[in-house]
Amino acid sequence: MPINLQKGQKISLTKEAGAAGLSRIVMGLGWDAKKTKGFFGLGAKDQEIDLDASCVLFDEAKNPLDVVYFGQLASKDGSIKHSGDNRTGAGDGDDEQILVELSRVPDVAKSILFVVNSFTGQNFSQIENAYCRVVDGATGTELARYDLSCTGDHTAMIMAKVYLHSGEWKMHAIGDNTSGKTFQHLMPAMQAAL
What is the pLDDT of residues 83-138, one digit of tens each? Predict the structure, then answer.
C-alpha cells in the first residue's frame, strides 16, 4: 500500500520497494481542471489547463546539472525521460510521467528536484485532484503519493526531491507553493528548497 505523504515528510523509497531493490522510478503527475459554469450557472464546461512536470538535477553545491521538461524530453546522459506534454489534464491516471533510471543517474548529481508549473498561467484554485506519485518502474507498484490539490493563487509548486543517502533512495515531499510559467522561473525557489 502506498504511503500518502504530508508536506515535509521524508521516506525511503528503497525500503518501500522491498527486497527486490529499486532500479528505476516513475514520477507521475495528474490533475483535472475545475469545471466552469456558464451563463447564469448553466452549461458547465471543462477548461484546459496545461500543467508541466519538470525535473532538475543538482550537484552538491546546488548548481543545476541537467533538466528534463517538455522542451527536452531526456537528460543528456539518457538516465531520465519525460513522457511528453499533456496540455489539458484530460483523461484518467497520470497526465505526465518522468522515468528515472536510478542506476544511471550521474554520481555528481546529489538531488533530483521535481516541480510543476502552470504554463497557461491559471493558478491552483482552478485545479482539482492534483497529485504526484512515485511508482517502482520495474514492478509498477505505487510507493508514495502526495496530494497537490491545495487551493491558492500560486501557479507552481516544488513537489518533491529524490536523493541517494547512505545507499538508499529517499524522497522528501517538499510542497512549496511558488509562481512561474516554466522551470526556469522556479530556479531560485528550487535552490532554496535544497
Answer: 976 655 556 678 889 999 999 999 999 999 999 998 888 888 888 888 899 999 99
Give me the sign of the Cα torsion angle 193, 135, 1, 110.
negative
Q: What is the pLDDT of residue 50?
A: 79
The answer to whether the CB of 149 falls within 8 A of the CB of 89 is no
* Pairing, β 51-58 against β 64-68: antiparallel
Q: Is the pTM of this model over 0.85?
A: yes
b/e map 116-151, b = 16+ CB within 10 Å: bbbbbebbbebbeebbbbbbbbeeeebbbbbbbeee
The domains located in the chain, with CATH, are 3-35+46-193 (2.60.60.30)
CA distance 15 to 19: 8
Neighbours of 167 (CB within 10 A): 6
